[in-house]
Fold DUF3054 domain-containing protein.
Amino acid sequence: MKRHAPALALDVGLVVVFCVIGRRSHDESNAILGLLGTVWPFLVGLGVGWLATIALYREKFTPELVLPTGILVWVTTVVVGMVLRAVSGQGTATSFIVVATTVLGVFLIGWRAVYRAVDSRRTRAEASTARGTSE
């Protein structure tokens, strides 16, 4: 699990950033406690997504993959987060669900897509160099 810590930390950081941006855009007060109240449902959802992906893919689990990891983590973060918000009396307006789904998708899938593109390009460059050719 140690080798997956950076990816998990990035996911956690992005969920926190999403919540900070949301709270800031609504000029909400009580910074730390308010943020904790906003972020916890999504962090629980993120944890469920990670655990589900690890359980489903065991030895094949790769946190940097868009599919299945990114998609499963994103959907679980949103769905579990919204359910927990609803049962804890927090808002789940349709517009918020749309914004949260979109932003968390861009964050949680986006970094994985960029990582894979850069890694693929690097791998191709290394293979080209090993063959003595250039791209």
Notes: Helices lie at 5-25, 31-57, 66-87, 94-131. The two ends are 36 Å apart (CA to CA).
